Amino acid sequence: MATSDPDPLLSLRRSIVSNSPPTTTISQDPTSEATENLAVATYLQFKDPPQSFSLDTPTRFISSDKPVDLRSIYFAWQKQDVAIPEYIASAQQLNEELASKDGGGSKVQNLVFVERLDLITWLQGASEESEYIKGLETDAASAAQSAQVASGAAGGVSTIPSSTAGARAGKTIDPRLQEIYNGERRMGDRNTVLRGIKPTDFSHVRKTAELFLRSRPPNAKGPAAAGPSNPAALASHPKPAAPTNAPGGKPSARRPDPIILLSPSASSLLRMSNIKPFLDTGTYTPPSSSASTPNILHISRLLPSIDPHRPLRFILVDTPEQFKPDYWNRVVAVFTTGQVWQFRQYKWQNPPELFKEVLGVYVGWRGEDIPGTVRGWGRGVVSVGVEKWNLGQGTQGRWRDREVVEGIWGRMEEWMKGKGWGKEGLGR
User: Does the CA dihedral 266-269-272-273 come out positive or negative?
Assistant: First the structure.
């Protein structure tokens, strides 16, 4: 929506979506020296249209009931691909540089991982709304103006007041026409009819329409289509066009995303670098030790017994370091190697107690013994095996991987259904 005052968040989003990122400069002058050091830079310059904003400008993004400044927003965007510890360390280092430069007047705010995820998703244009971003003031102003039009106080389609209908210069109004004028009622224009007299959120209409407009997936003919008996369903399950939401603390009409926790152990066969192709396409590849491994992943999966029309979006992380207490209610599975130290930061640190609350998954090599610790944790842990990786063969001939993955999804769907997950989330 157009606004008379440029909005830094909208300008940043437009530049990112149009692949024309802004530059940081040491002054408001667009021709001034550009620098990538946010401790030295003071302004963010945009090319189309030409605009500049101070990095200390507060934005409509709200964290801990306070607006987040533009420097913190841009810093979070720059660090979108780094792991949480590296992001926190970089923020601390930047704050130290800012303190030495201006005596602590400026400071980068450290966003928790769900806020950062929601922000990045919105900036990329993958989501049209964010529960952390306040609406523009022009939305409320437009609604107030529409209310005046609807009440006849201003604007709208001009009418002939019944009290003055007969006062036209030098003319006598026919009594029957005067009676018609007296029966007129004030009306607004089409914008008034569409807007109503107060701000109204119609986003739920779009979400409801998606249920009818989305084409039916070719393999979703029944509950068994995505079950363990049909491995081909894994590669062709439908994916949503855009993320629906990120975890948040306040009530939202969007369905909360279930969470899957991975093991951070270096000995784990499944880590953040290879879990997505494994669960998404049913192909196992060895984990990568690259430093650019993402710290948050998303996987969408249609679970017919929970919601036969909309795929659920799962959040995958390997640490609960940034969890809020209510996030534990959304943890549906924990991948483990059998090492107890993995659970030190968990809400339930005792493995038997943990796997009464969430589904445990152990993935090892086919033909090798399951660790005694895993067997001792009981039926709450699903143990599966994949074929050992053959460097010369690569991914060819790994058709059994799909059977294993379908079995994991089947057990997870069964567990979530038993815990009360429904179309709108847990217990709904």
Answer: positive
